Structures are given as C-alpha cells and as structure tokens.
C-alpha cells in the first residue's frame, strides 16, 4: 500500500502545532492544574477517536488513492495543545475533538498507562508524546507540568537556534521507538514556537507466541 504525500490540510495541522497562531494559545492558570481524568470509558474514547479519524480522512484523504495516518496520535497531540489553550481556541478544540469543557479533565494519564502496560505480554505497544517549547516563549511552567502529569510527556523549553536541540529531540524519539525512528526533525525554524510529537511503537509478536498462533 502506498503512502500519500501530505496535502495542504495535513500541513495545516502540522503548522498549527509548530507555529505561532493568533489568540491566547497558552493560558493555563495554576489553580486549574489538578489530578483528574477525562470522564469517558476506554470504549467511549475509542469511539471518539474513531469518529475523529473518519472526519480527518474525509478532509486529508480527498482525491488520494492511499493515505496512512494515526487518528490516535493526531487526536492526542491536539488534545495536549488544547490543554494549553483558552477562549475561542479552546472552544474549537473541544468541538472538533469532542473534549470535555473543563481543561483540568484533559488527562490521558490513565489511558496511556493502560495502553502501555504491555511490556511483559506477547507484544510491546507503546504510545509516547513529547512537547518542545521555544525558549523565546515565556516560562509556561504550569502547561509543561500538566503535560508531564496528564500526558506522561517529555516536556522542555529549548533554544531553537541551537543545533543541539535537534539532537535532543531526535534522541528522545529514538528512545521512545526503540531505535526504529532515529530522525524526525532535521532542523528547527526560527519562527517555530511549539513542537508536539507523538510516536507509536509496536514490536513484532514474540517468537513462541507467533509459532503457537501459526499452528492454530
């Protein structure tokens, strides 16, 4: 199966989470930072992501023969962005992503813990997310703390003018994907303010399990 080239809609999604946008994108009061979970079951969350994926493919897949994308990855990345937004920006995220209106409820911790608890089973499945803020931005410590707590995100403010920042981001991605992806960022542009990267690592079925499955 072929993989289509990103079209303008896909590129907009990527730009939205990497370049400055008008309006209050980061506004997370400290008093809203509290332990909480999204009030949806795993089944409800799966249904929400499925609906989002269907709408997304209608937009980015128009006129394409083949396209490969991860609705879960995009939904989680945009939910993280939503947790640092406010007013009309937050309203748009809530509507499109079917999120709860309370930002303190934007919490993937329990979900990611459940999904990633497969290290000792027949197959390793790991979802990881990282948040990288330009050092040109003010210190959004509440937003960074929330991303670490609620999304288990690797979060840090970096000097986007420093070439070592590219190395640091790629090393994080390589670690999260067990060395399968070693470079996802080639350079950082000076007008970038925020990068959110989501990765999914899935190992092959372990030998004895694969043999048993084959004989069945």
From TrEMBL:
Entry's Gene Ontology molecular function annotations: serine-type endopeptidase inhibitor activity
Serpin domain span: 50-201
One Gene Ontology cellular component annotation held by this UniProt entry: extracellular space
Top-rank lineage group of the source organism: Eukaryota
PANTHER family: GH10112P-RELATED, SERINE PROTEASE INHIBITOR, SERPIN
Family membership: Belongs to the serpin family.
The protein, known as: Serpin domain-containing protein
Organism: Streblomastix strix
Upper classification of the organism: Eukaryota, Metamonada, Preaxostyla, Oxymonadida, Streblomastigidae
